[in-house]
Amino acid sequence: MDYFLRVQRAIDFIEENLKEDISLEEISNQAYSSVSHFYRMFQITTGSSIKGYVQNRRLSQAAYELLTTEKRVIDIGLDYQFNGEETFIRAFTKVFGITPGKYRKSGNVDDLLTKITLNKHDIILKKGDVDMEPKFIKKEFKLIGVEGEVNFSGNFVKTIDSLQKELFDKLDSIRDINNTNAFIAYWYYKSNGTNKEPLCYYFAAVEVDNMESIPKGLVSKIIPESNYAVFNEKRRGEIAGPNGYAYKVWLPTSDKELNEHIPGDFEVYSDINNIGADTPCEIYIPIK
Fold first, then answer.
1. Distance between CA atoms of 130 and 32, rounded to whole angstroms?
2. Which listed residue, 215, 225, 235, 245, has the most CB atoms within 10 A of its CB?
3. Torsion of CA 79, 80, 82, 88, to 10 degrees
4. Which tens digits make up the pLDDT trace of 220-249?
5. What is the value of pTM for the model shown?
6. CA 159, CA 179: separation in Å to the nearest integer?
7. Bridge partners, 216 (sequence order)
């Protein structure tokens, strides 16, 4: 079953249970995936987080009921899993810009989020500057570096710059570097506990031939051998990322699936002294 169908199964499940207390694990099970892997699949496919989509659908259905029924505001909020009138009003106002009471009087239905229905045949292929077809390789990564959580709602660029600097300050202490000119950035998701959305991490690293000596303050990772689709990226974001070509166009229309055992992808730079946002690099997408 391709990942479009798997995500659609989960969306259908969400829709059938908007008034029920459903967990991320229950939603992910509909797509036959772990929470971390499905979170990534859902973001890639819909452009939204799972919890964000569920809450916005609940709020949209609540808004519709405000306009079409005479039910009390608190009862509508409780029906859609908001545990209190104040919580419901705060969430509703954040999305719609006015309170539920004022919304009821407005009669406005223009801002409602409807259920997503996926159709990969609607995708338009655009070549532009993108290399349409990747090359395929099989590879294991042995990495030493420094990692940190990336908060996309904050100053994540500052976080990335800080992690890179920390690695560069300790480069001389790392032995057996495979290619002293190369830099590898591993973006991946890690579980954040029961029914919490996974956290995104950035691992700034170099590839080594062995793990016999790990300098103090650095982290080692062995990424098991996997098949990869390798793309040439000329500008940051055109290939990788939730809205990049690899995930939005190539993967849905290919016969490949993401390797769920590797919860992220890699940016591989040939010049460790030149890794800016507009620096060309290779993007490694793990597939099976």
1. 32
2. 245
3. -100
4. 999 999 999 999 998 878 888 777 888 888
5. 0.83
6. 25
7. none
